[in-house]
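Standup notes, structure subgroup. Blocker cleared on the nicotinamide-adenine-dinucleotide input:
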Amino acid sequence: MAGIFDLTGRLALVTGAGQGIGAGIARHLAAQGARVVVNDIRQERAEATAEVVRRAGGQAEALAFDVTDREAVRAAIATRGFDVVVNNAGNAGAQLMHPRRFRDMDPSEWAGPIDVNLHGVMNTTHAALGGMCDRGFGRLVTISSGAGVVGLPIGVAPYGAGKGGALAFMRHIAIENAGSGVTANSIALGMMEMTEVHDAALVAKLAASVPCRRLGTGDDVGPAVVWLASDQAGWVTGQTIHVNGGGLTT
Ligand SMILES: NC(=O)c1ccc[n+]([C@@H]2O[C@H](COP(=O)([O-])OP(=O)(O)OC[C@H]3O[C@@H](n4cnc5c(N)ncnc54)[C@H](O)[C@@H]3O)[C@@H](O)[C@H]2O)c1
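Run returned:
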C-alpha cells in the first residue's frame, strides 16, 4: 500500500514557483514523488527551482508562461494531464506591490492585482478542469491570503479583492464538481517571508505581530499543499485552510 500523502505518479503544476513560497511547494510535492512542472513568468526563475528539485532527487521541468494570458495557459495545460494544479502566482504579478489607500489609487492600478490573483486562477482552472473530471481525479489548490478574508489597513484593497474572489471561486468549483474525484481548496496565508524584503528591523517587527513569533515560509506551506493534493484528502473540498502562525483568521 502506498504511504500516506504519497504522490508517486502524479503530475503537478505549481504556478509562480520560481521563488518564494511556490518554490517551497514545488520542493515538497517532488519530495513526495510527484513530477512537478515549475511555472514562472520568468524562465530563469522556473529553471532555477526545477534545478533545485532535481538536485534533491526529485523530478521537475521548467515551463515559463504568464498565468494572466489565457491562450498561453491553455497551450501549456491542454496537452498535459495535470493531476494537481497549485495556483501560487500572485502578489502584484510581475510588478512589485505598491500599497496605497484605495481612495488615492488611479483605476489603472486595480487591474494587475485582480488579473493575477483572480483571473490567473480562473485561467488555469478552466484549462485543467475538464481533463481532471474526465480522468476522475484532480486536485486544485489556490494560495490565497488573510487579505482575502479580513479587512486590513495596509493599502491592499484590490489585492484583497483578487484574493477573496479566488477563495469564493474555488468554493463554487468545489461544489460544481463534487463527486467527480476533483477537489478544490484554498490556503489563506498570513505574514510570510518576502523575497524582496531584506530590512531586518522590518522583518523583526512583522514577525513580532505573528502569534507564533516568526514569519511563514514555503516549508510551512508545502506540507499543507501535499496533504490537499493527496489521495487521503479526497473528502476535503471547498475549504479555506488558514496557514498563518495563529494570526489573521476570521
Ligand atoms: N509573501 C507574503 O507575505 C504572502 C502573504 C499571503 C499570501 N501570499 C501569496 O502567496 C503566493 C506566493 O507569494 P510569494 O511572496 O512567494 O511571491 P513572490 O512574488 O516572491 O514570487 C512569485 C513568483 O511568481 C511569478 N509570477 C508573477 N506573476 C506571474 C504570472 N502572471 N504568471 C506566472 N508567474 C508569475 C514571479 O516571477 C515570482 O517568481 C502569492 O499568491 C501571494 O499573493 C504571499
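Discussed briefly. The chain has a mean pLDDT of 95.
Next: hand off to the docking folks.
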